Amino acid sequence: MASSSGLLRVSMSYKGFLLVLLSAAVMSSAEAGFYSQMRRLLQTADPVEQVLEFARNAAQVSIENAESLLETLRSGDMAASRQAYLKLRPEYEQIEHLYEVFGDTDADIDARPDAFTYGEAIDPNQLTTPGAIFKGSHRIEVLLYRDENVTAAIPFAELLIEDYKTLLTKLENAEDYTEEIIFAGLIEVAYEVAKKKFSSEEETWSDQSVLIFDNNLKGIIEMVKPFQSDLETTDTAVAQELQANLDAATAALAPFIESSADGNTYTPYSTVPMEARKAIQEEFYNVALSLEAAAEALNYARAAEAEAEAESEAGADEDTCTPTITLAEYNSSTPYVQNGIDYFRALLPYQQNFSAEFTKLVEAGDLDAVKAAYGATRPLWEQIEVLAVSYPFIDEDLDAREYVYPKGELSEMWKGFHRLERLIFRDGTLDNETLQYAKGVEESLVELDTLYSDELYSANFAGVLSFEGMMNLANEVASKKVSSEEETSSDLSMMIFYNNWKGILSQALPFCPLAEAECAELVAAVKEAGECIGITTDSIEKATAADVTAASVEGVTEAEYPLYSEASMADRKCVVEKGYAVRDAVVKMANALNLVSDCSPFYSDNFVTYPMGEAKVVASSTEEAAASTEEAAATTSAGLKSMGNAVVVAASLAGFALLV
Known about the structure:
Radius of gyration: 27 Å
Mean pLDDT: 88
Number of strands: 4
Order of helices and strands: HHHHHHHHHHHEEHHHHHHHHHHHHHEHE
Strand content: under 5%
Helix content: 55-70%
Distance between the termini: 29 Å
Number of helices: 25
């Protein structure tokens, strides 16, 4: 991944000299002892080795803390288990910057549901398959804070201990790590805090995102230390700027951290004021920029092509799939597709009017009026975005969040609703920049209107694509948007969920005559999901072009959606559980209509339903193997069954080996 020059540069300066020392032909025992000490000193002096030694120590502490967590979970004490969970978190957050080498182990330890195809859903066959399912720290967080289920967390803590041991093994081979890899990871994590983690998606249920920010920063500080001397020699100004920005980020976090002999206590992130969040965010952007400058000064910066290669290798699929079934064809000329498009076309003029009014208010400079008008611009688009797969460039211009760009908020490419949200609700800014972004939204909506009428573009609308959009969005609501990353500054995420579900149903309803039972199941699931939000001014199942009137539009744009910050844990859990029910119903309907390729993860034979897919098992090859897995399987099965009343393991795991 890194260039050959990067592999040689610093390591040769120390390790090459070390080889010379070790090549002496004959040494006395005293001399051998001396050279042994020299070797250790030289190894310690190697910046990469110093970083790895720091990481190894952190991994070892993580193993010990995970073992303590497991012991506490087995006691059944919820309060103590939550404290043990929080004690577990810091060390990995200090070293996750080396994720590129960690590979699937990073996912097994620290990934959130949206990193996995099926979100929180579990395939029992893949409990020990690296990088396959949602487990690790955040699964335990969900179980302790949202579900309040200590017993269900036990098997995941057992798995987590083994994953930390795997991590420690991966830290032993120094040849896997280079200065380029280290700096790339430091830069990426600094940007990630600023552009993504600050939304609260990191510790959604424990409300401990400040803990994450603090320890990400501590990791950066510790991993930079071995390079500081060289940096000061190479470029004093860059070294001073980096240190100043690290100090400023530390200071921005300090008011929300209380230190004691027992460790740090962190302010719940939900109570951190908007101004403070902005300051933390800005300081992490500054740290990222300073790290980039340091990498450039030390000649450790990756070339763009090397960075792309690393990302490609990290995300490459080893297996390819050739579809074996012929899908049903429903193009835009069929009523099944066209009626869905007609619903969105009926909404679009209202959307354009709301956006035009919003722009006028921005120009007038009335911040309170602008905030109110912003809320009216969002619901209809969140229905229309269901077909984003058919107009991805418009979706990006209108609705992308900053984390899709490498430099986040610093990217000139980022615009649309969420740029406006940030300027208005976080910054309170109504200047020419805000006005230009508002006008840009209007221009994108005009372009969308044109596409709906463009016969040449009609090939981009089809039944397969419609259901792909429905399945993906339904999955995203339950596994990702529920963290509040959608409307972080405006606090309007609950509005987003409701209208995403309504938009999904609008595109499915025209297909109902072809799959009546599955459609009825989906309608019921969407109605139940809508009840999680609790608005009374709209009927969520009224989602056809004939249903669109000024009154119906007002029912969703003027509804009193609950603020996400005021939603109870039960309300948010409802969004997750009912959201997955919507997803599963959409997938079932799509398969009934023969609109899912057998290469798709949503194909019926591949799909894993929430909360647990069918436990497909194979017999062990020997009685001894069966006996060895019986106890572990039974324990895992018991723990997983306890995750909720709806969880049922479809087949007994005792006496069988999990298919891995």
